[in-house]
Input
Amino acid sequence: MSELSPAHLLTILVSAALTDNILLTRFLGMCSFLAISRQMKASLGLGLAVTFVTTITCGINAAIYAWVLKPLGIESLLLIVFIIVVAAFVQFLEMLVERVSLGLYYALGIFLPLITVNCAVLGAALFMVNRNYGVVESTVFGFGSGFGWMLAIVLMAGIRERLKNAQVPPALEGPGITLIIAGIIALGFVGFSGMVQP
Output
């Protein structure tokens, strides 16, 4: 099987989205996950934004790492360079969302610029370096990671919207029930573990 065969890339994609979900198995990006998942529209918008940023920045960061940092022997600058690339793309995305959908821009609020410091985005870039992925593999991995993060936040938003009409015990209202639901969703995703390995 060729290293860049469709089966290999599909394995990376499914693994990043489900079995090795960056949010539910690595617990990266939890703060915005818990804060934004109250509304479906905001969750979907932030999920799409994280997916877009993670896909593009993983590809660019892989290229910079393989073609600039590694050949020059300056891998120690990896973290700084990755953060600069992520920050530049988030700034671009913020301007784009503000022009296209002002309602979504206000719904996301402070969490849109905070994608810059979302540890899920930076974590995906660092994981692709640890796994020695090339540019194409890194881009697929970035898309899978972002899509998995979006899938988790949309699932949580759907459940939390239904909980508004449910009778939740007073002791579990708010963060309590949210964390219990997140744990149950995480168990569901971990259930895919034996299926696909990166």
